[in-house]
Amino acid sequence: xxxxxxKRKKNKNGLRLLSKNFGLSEVFTGEKSKKQADDFATIFERxxxxxxxKTAAKEKIAYHxxxxxxxxxxxxxxPTPQKEIDLHGFNATEAQNKTASFIQTARWHGLKTIRxxxxxxxxxxxxxxxPEIVEGTVRDMKKRNQVLAFSWEKKSKEKSGALIVxxx
Length: 168
Description:
- By secondary structure, the protein is of the alpha+beta class.
- The chain folds into two domains: about 25-60, no CATH class; about 75-165, Ribosomal Protein S8, Chain: A, domain 1 (2-Layer Sandwich), CATH 3.30.1370.110.
- The chain has helices spanning about 25-30, 40-45, 50-60, 65-75, 90-110, 130-145, and strands at about 85, 115, 145-150, 160-165.
- It has a four-stranded mixed β-sheet with strand order 1-2-4-3, with helices on one face.
- It is elongated, with a radius of gyration of 29 Å.
- The model has no long low-confidence stretch (mean pLDDT about 80).
């Protein structure tokens, strides 16, 4: 009986190459599987069927971040904007300073919801600057635990010219 050459070809990095009759289980275990393995397409279709994707989506929704869920529930009790500032005409630095100062003052006065009007940049040469600057300032204040949450008034920065800020 002659011994079959069991050495596999290797790539330039010394890793064994897979062939049509050589499965991944053999790579990791060194033993040939007795059962013929399914091809990749079959495994993929089984693993990611529409039903399994729907199940995964439901599980993701069910496992919602408890902190985010608590914040969302808390925001339902927040009032409509109690005060607003209009930043039309300010440059980037002035808008950043006014935003931070307005938020600090509103917190000091015990306000819960404020509106910061940035405009859409319709009259700006080029892209609007203030929405980006103001959103960045509010995001930094959120990281410093001074802001609970914020959102664009019309749910989109491009469609809205105002940011609603919920204060802690």
